[in-house]
Amino acid sequence: MRATEVKAGIALKNILFLTDFSEPSEAALPFATAIGRGYGAAIHALHVLLPTPTSYMAPDLTGAAIAATEENAQAEMQRIESQLAGLRHETIVERGAAVWPVVQRAIKDYKIDLVVLGTHGRTGAEKFLLGSVAEEIFRRSPVPVLTIGPNVRSGVHSGARFHRVLFATDFSAESLAASEYAVSLAQESQARLLLLHVIRQREQAKEQREFELSVAEAIHQLYSIVPEDTKLDCPPEVAVEYGEPAIRIVETAKERGADLIVLGVRNAEGRLGAATHLERATAHKVVAQAACPVLTVQS
What is the predicted pLDDT for the residue at 283? Predict the structure, then answer.
């Protein structure tokens, strides 16, 4: 393990694992534990008890239902706790009117450096959507979020170790802020690092030479992202693609065998979807459609 080299750049001391005890949450847990071990981080497993229809029952029935719900949650947490053996950890069951306010407090109280969650997702009429809880956390979290999306098949990632990390950028300050996370995770996992830039509209280049020059410049900028003295197991690879950014990021990740995508995002400031370094909602689409986990880092 090369943790000392990694921690010099990125320190992950406290990881918040958000669970609702569903299958997507189960799929996300190995990633939280693997990263926790790699960085020597503590895992804070959190479940939020939300109001249920029993809240409107007669008082005597409501009390019994609440007690049963809490007892069930504690039993599920004991099962999760058994999977955290060997790691510094704690389990938290907290009641709240909504998930985000509880998560927001936990991020502050436990000095969280990374949130890990799984989401089932759902399909809308026009695009893939994340579950409502994952959507809100993805948009509002002030710390990086590792989302195990609905298209990530269980068991695909052996031991939740990353073998090829894809970092996509348009060279803006927002996107480049995430590069250190991509490099750090590639170091920690001894993974290959692929740097990707997507040129949106090739057909709008005035002539072929203009397009070729833009590709050459993009390649140069991609290579300059990783400092020369960075210690990686192998030199980073670069790729320049053209097309719709979200589609090409997802497709390139699949074609190149990436098992982690890293994106820089800009705070959405209350707008629906996510304002990102590539376009509004691009990162959202990648998270919802990727066949591998996606790490989003807000600048």
Answer: 84
Q: Please tell me the distance from the alpha carbon of residue 32 to that of residue 27, in angstroms, as a whole number.
A: 10
Q: Which amino acid is residue 28, in one-letter code?
A: A
Dihedral sign from CA coordinates of 241, 184, 180, 247: positive
Helix axes 245-255, 282-289, angle to 10 degrees: 30
Q: Are 49 and 23 in contact (CB under 8 A)?
A: no
Strands (E), 85-224: 89-95, 114-118, 122-123, 128-129, 145-148, 164-168, 192-199
Mean pLDDT of the chain: 82
- CA gyration radius, the chain: 20
* Residue 281 confidence (pLDDT): 74
Least confident of 53-57, 197-201, 232-236: 53-57
Residues 71 and 217 in one domain: no
pLDDT at 63: 64
Out of 120, 154, 188, a domain closes at: 154
Both structure tokens of 163: 């073998």
- pLDDT tens digit sequence for 13-34: 999 999 999 888 998 999 999 9
Q: Could you give the CA distance from residue 283 to residue 299 in angstroms, rounded to a whole number?
A: 14
Whether residues 172 and 134 share a domain: the answer is: no
Under the banding of pLDDT at 50, 70 and 90, the label for residue 46 is very high
What is the C-alpha separation between 14 and 47, in angstroms, rounded?
16
